[in-house]
Structure to design on (119 residues):
């Protein structure tokens, strides 16, 4: 049975797309845990103790919209310099002491111990 060049190219291109779909993880396939902040037992919102601020943008000058706490699991989906864009996955951030439950936004990268393929 003879195959045309067109049919062979079609099969090769479809095989390539399938390989890409099952290939290595891409940016955003990264989870981490909040580290390096005081324990929630020392929580004091006014002094900035016991939480990591979640902000509207990648920098401390952006407005705080939420909090995550030591040990909370987060998903990392973007990075700008030393800032990660995160979403709360599990932990106290599901029921925060301040702000909305399951916050999403920007946090300082130095307080996230991340694994996987991070942005």
């Amino acid at each position: 049975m003879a195959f045309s060049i067109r049919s062979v190219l079609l099969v090769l291109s479809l095989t390539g797309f399938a390989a890409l779909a099952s290939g290595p993880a891409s940016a955003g396939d990264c989870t981490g845990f909040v580290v390096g902040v005081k324990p929630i037992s020392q929580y004091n919102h006014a002094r900035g103790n016991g939480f990591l601020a979640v902000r509207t943008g990648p920098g401390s000058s952006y407005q705080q919209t939420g909090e995550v706490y030591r040990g909370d699991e987060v998903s990392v989906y973007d990075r700008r310099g030393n800032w990660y864009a995160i979403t709360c996955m599990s932990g106290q951030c599901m029921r925060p002491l301040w702000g909305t439950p399951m916050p999403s936004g920007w946090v300082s990268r130095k307080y996230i111990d991340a694994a996987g393929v991070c942005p």
Q: What stands out?
A: The chain is about 15% helix and 35% strand. Residues 9 and 15 are 10 Å apart (CA to CA).
